[in-house]
């Protein structure tokens, strides 16, 4: 799909635009946007609204053809709610999703969007939401289908109409939006790819490709090098599988050489069977998504690489499989992490924290400005927050509150929201072990919080936030598939940091 920015010259109105389908906004109580008003010279839009065929509520739509004195072949009316002066974010995103879906079933090859601005958001924001919505509709993972899904995707060209004085900014925003969806698409593709293809080696090769394409530095450590670093906690998870583990370091040094980097740490379990603490059968296929943290970190790197973001960002990805076997780690085994802290592994299914803790210790060497770890860490976060919000955890002090607020705001801006939950001393007590410095589980109560408390013990040398994306990184059921989250949140956060 080919996106572009268009402007109208000062004398023209939307009725002069030649296009397969012109998309304009209308409102409840039969109110019209400026673009719709220009199409209404003969009263056709008024008549359509009066007929009751469309309410104007957010998400409602109506297709009209062959309007007199209108150059466009078709007009798609999109409902944007009740207040023309205050189009809400929610109404706008709902409307562009409807537009993307209905246009892909039509014969129009090129479409033009002439939509009003959104309350409190700039044109760059509306462009980003539009590009994401149109991309979502045509995305498929069908590499392993002998007969490809037929996507109606007739829409080849999408033009977004903006005011002339906004054209330059809109073009930059469009390029950034395309970079963002390319990153999201990589994340979705990696997530949907099954564990017999998406192995730690495949993730490492993907990192190498990103490095070549966007001129980044890359280092892939193999088992021997991981052993030399004394990452015994990470290696304990990999003990039961024949699939070789990898430790990926990908560096985008777009800022000044001396600027402290942001480090993104992604959980890369390419399949989580639970290990000896084997998971139940139903739905276990979805544990191919347990590399969603790694996938979203790689997607974010791809996005900022294409944007040539002026910021230093380093991705650190521990990746392996969690499988049972005669060589697998047993419940009760004790390991010494890279940090020197010992861990009693009471449940081999609490493996994410075991690979992340060594990666978090490794991150110290970069003297980071901030470290953000991203992980499909706990089923419990789905109980707490459902599939709407990513869980956000950090220490409760001024510096960490500030970083948390920065990320929460980026999530809101990107329509990829997170919600903060507490950590602290009382929860930490649940991790007490009789035989080691800590246990790797804290009992059934507050499972996501005790997991975050475990990670926190390995992050005391820098400012850190943990994102639990187990509820947001993929969908189950009929719509099973990776969502591309939290690439929008992370990318927006990094863009805002780059200024
Ligand atoms: N990858 C899972 C978390 C998960 C489970 C995500 C279900 C999405 C759906 C993680 O490694 C895990 O197994 N966590 C355990 C922790 C428990 C053993 C303390 C869990 O959530 O059950
Ligand atoms: Mn697990
Ligand atoms: Zn897991």
Class from secondary-structure proportions: alpha/beta
CATH class of the largest domain: Alpha Beta
Residue share in helices?
25-40%
Total domain count: 2
* Largest sheet data: 9 strands, mixed
CATH architecture descriptor text of the largest domain: 3-Layer(aba) Sandwich
By CATH, the superfamily of the largest domain comes out as Zn peptidases
Stretches with pLDDT under 50, minimum 5 residues: none
Oligomer designation:
single chain
Give the termini separation: 29 Å
Binding site for Mn(2+) 1: 272, 349, 351
Cofactor: Mn(2+)
Main location: cytoplasm
GO molecular function: manganese ion binding; metalloaminopeptidase activity
Overall description:
One of its GO terms (biological process) is proteolysis. Its cofactor is Mn(2+). Keywords: Aminopeptidase, Cytoplasm, Hydrolase, Manganese, Metal-binding, Protease. GO terms for molecular function: manganese ion binding; metalloaminopeptidase activity. The chain is an alpha/beta fold and 499 residues long. The protein contains 15 helices and 20 strands. The chain folds into two domains: 2-161, Leucine Aminopeptidase, subunit E, domain 1, CATH 3.40.220.10; 181-498, Zn peptidases (Aminopeptidase, 3-Layer(aba) Sandwich), CATH 3.40.630.10. The strands form four sheets. Strands 7, 8, 9, 10, 11, 14, 15, 16 and 18 form a nine-stranded mixed beta sheet that branches. The protein has a six-stranded mixed beta sheet with strand order 1-6-5-2-4-3. Strand 5, helix 4 (123-138) and strand 6 (157-161) form a beta-alpha-beta unit. It is elongated, with a radius of gyration of 25 Å. The relative contact order is 0.11. The mean pLDDT is 97. Bound molecules: ligand BES, manganese (II) ion and zinc ion. Residues 272, 274, 349, 351 line the site of manganese (II) ion.
């Amino acid at each position: 799909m080919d996106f572009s920015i268009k402007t109208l010259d000062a004398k023209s109105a939307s009725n002069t635009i030649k296009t397969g389908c012109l998309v304009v906004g209308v409102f409840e109580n039969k109110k019209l946007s400026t673009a719709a008003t220009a199409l209404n010279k003969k009263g056709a839009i008024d008549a359509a609204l009066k007929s009751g065929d469309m309410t104007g509520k957010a998400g409602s739509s109506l297709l009209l053809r062959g309007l007199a004195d209108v150059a466009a072949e078709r007009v798609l009316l999109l409902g944007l709610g009740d207040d023309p002066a205050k189009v809400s974010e929610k109404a706008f995103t709902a409307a562009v999703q409807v537009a993307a879906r209905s246009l892909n079933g039509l014969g129009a090859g090129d479409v033009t969007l002439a939509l009003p601005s959104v309350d409190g958001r700039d044109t760059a924001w509306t462009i980003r939401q539009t590009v994401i919505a149109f991309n979502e509709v045509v995305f498929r993972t069908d590499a392993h289908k002998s007969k490809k899904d037929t996507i109606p995707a007739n829409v080849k060209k999408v033009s977004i109409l903006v005011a002339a004085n906004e054209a330059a900014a809109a073009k930059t925003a469009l390029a950034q939006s395309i970079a963002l969806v390319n990153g999201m698409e990589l994340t979705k593709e990696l997530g949907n790819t099954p564990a017999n293809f998406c192995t730690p080696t495949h993730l490492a090769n993907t990192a190498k490709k990103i490095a070549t394409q966007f001129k980044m530095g890359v280092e892939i450590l193999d088992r021997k090098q991981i052993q030399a670093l004394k990452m015994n906690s990470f290696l304990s998870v990999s003990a039961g599988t024949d699939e070789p583990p990898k430790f990926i370091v990908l560096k985008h040094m777009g800022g000044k050489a001396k600027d402290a980097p942001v480090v993104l740490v992604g959980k890369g379990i390419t399949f989580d069977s639970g290990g000896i603490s084997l998971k139940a059968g139903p739905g276990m296929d979805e544990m191919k998504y347990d590399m969603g943290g790694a996938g979203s970190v790689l997607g974010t790197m791809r996005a900022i690489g294409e944007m040539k973001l002026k910021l230093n960002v380093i991705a650190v990805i521990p990746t392996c499989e969690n499988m049972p076997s005669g060589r697998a780690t047993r419940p009760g085994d004790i390991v010494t992490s890279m940090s020197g802290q010992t861990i009693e592994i009471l449940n081999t299914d609490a493996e994410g924290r075991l690979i992340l803790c060594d990666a978090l210790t490794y991150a110290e060497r970069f003297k980071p400005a901030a470290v953000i770890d991203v992980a499909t860490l706990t089923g419990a976060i789905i109980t707490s927050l459902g599939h709407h919000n990513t869980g956000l955890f950090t220490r409760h002090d001024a510096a960490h509150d500030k970083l948390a607020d920065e990320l929460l705001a980026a999530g809101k801006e990107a329509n990829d929201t997170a919600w903060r939950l507490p950590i602290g001393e009382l929860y930490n007590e649940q991790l007490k072990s009789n035989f080691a410095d800590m246990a790797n589980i804290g009992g059934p109560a507050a499972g996501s919080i005790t997991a975050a408390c475990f990670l926190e013990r390995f992050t005391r040398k820098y400012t850190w936030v943990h994102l639990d994306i187990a509820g947001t990184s993929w969908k189950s059921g009929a719509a099973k598939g990776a969502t591309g989250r939290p690439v929008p949140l992370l990318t927006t956060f990094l863009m805002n940091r780059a200024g």
